[in-house]
Amino acid sequence: METVVNLSRKEQVIRKAAELFREKGYAASSMRDLAQMLGIEAASLYSHIKSKEEILQSLCFDMAAEFRKSLQDVEKMKVTAGEKLKLGIIGHIKVMAKDLVAAAVFMNEHRHLSQPYLREFLLLRINYINRFKTIIEEGIATGEFKENIDTKLAVMTLFSSLNWMPMWYDPDGNIVPTDLGEQLADMLINGLRKQKL
Amino acid sequence: METVVNLSRKEQVIRKAAELFREKGYAASSMRDLAQMLGIEAASLYSHIKSKEEILQSLCFDMAAEFRKSLQDVEKMKVTAGEKLKLGIIGHIKVMAKDLVAAAVFMNEHRHLSQPYLREFLLLRINYINRFKTIIEEGIATGEFKENIDTKLAVMTLFSSLNWMPMWYDPDGNIVPTDLGEQLADMLINGLRKQKL
DNA sequence: CCTACCGATCGGTAGG
DNA sequence: CCTACCGATCGGTAGG
Question: Residue B158 above 60 pLDDT?
């Protein structure tokens, strides 16, 4: 019972912290700011969390786990590389859309993690990126994609677009995450140019 | 004479600050850190600069001015939208490549500007983005680009890719800024998919 | 969850 | 460019 209450309060703290970190950045956010947002004293925060950085760790690694899970599901599918790329993109966007605030913190503030967490985080990220790269290479191998693609550039472009989405995507707008993913995938795969018929 | 010496020392301070801001973020960078990098006392910094934020302002607005100039040159040209887009991308990348450190700070730390500078900065940025959007719209109008493009998505994707480049581009690698721009433009315009002949 | 408080560090100034 | 220093604020702890 007490555990349940504490957990939920802890989650409230982390949620509010995410909003604060997104708005001001991790380093410029003070525990006093956070306490005020929750209507308590700064010292009281430490009944729920161990440290400021523990909050950042939760946010970053929880997001990382969700991204990982999403990609894993896609990799199992027996479809073309183009399809896989599209589904990977849609999955990524859906994960972000579930919590745009946490997604923004994940992207912008992870560098304030201390060691060894930072190292671990970066390893997870490079692994995730490389798995997208593998999908693109697969598409080149099967002849679906051009053979002269710079895969590093391609995957970084993809990643940049995905990671910046929390900065401008409006969840109350009239485009739903799945459609956004479809369109982004189409743009990357087919380009802006009108195909000649 | 004295002015010349001061100016150059001021520029040294700003350069070192850019490195520091990129590495640790603006808020987490202290004037004492910066002083140490320069081999002087923290208080001595204030003979060269008015405040910590003045450094950030210099970095952000100087970069903004360079981007603006580059785009202006491209807009004057009488070429297709696709060409214009490509040249705009190359111009942007060249500006970044001239000072990757400042470019990274420009992208990641501008939000720590205080008002009214922040507002002014964001206005410059939205103007710049909109001018790229106009080029894309021009391409749609002339039939060069698909008519069903989500121009907002297209321009944000472009922008994301451009802005993340300082994070992974290796100036000592074997790809030169112009080529990188060419390839990025080709990818966005023509896509990854192999064209059917 | 609070009061009371700690040592450390911050950006910046005075005066030379 | 330095010494000496300021008031403010930081993350966090002790003890209830």
Answer: yes
Kindly report, residue by residue over A54-100, the tens digit of the pLDDT.
999 999 999 999 999 999 999 999 999 999 999 999 999 999 999 99
Q: Phi and psi (nearest 5°) for B43? A: -60, -30
Q: Which residue of B53, B105, B164, B192 is the best one to mutate when testing the A interface, meaning the one whose CB has the most A CBs within 10 A?
A: B192
Q: Does A96 touch chain B (CB under 8 A)?
A: no
CATH number, position A168: 1.10.357.10
Q: Running DSSP on this structure, what letter comes out for residue B193? A: B
Task: Please tell me the number of Cα atoms within 13 Å of B136 on its side-chain side.
Answer: 25
Q: Which two tokens stand for residue B17?
A: 């600050």
Would you say residue A27 lies in a domain? no
Range scoring the smallest mean pLDDT among A1-10, A22-31, B69-78: A1-10
Q: Does pTM surpass 0.85? A: yes
Q: Which residue has the tokens 């430490």?
A: A46
- A61: domain range? 52-190
Q: How many domains does chain A have?
A: 1
Residue of chain B nearest A188, judged by CA positions: B191
* Residue A108 located in a structural domain: yes
The reply to whether B161 falls in a domain is yes
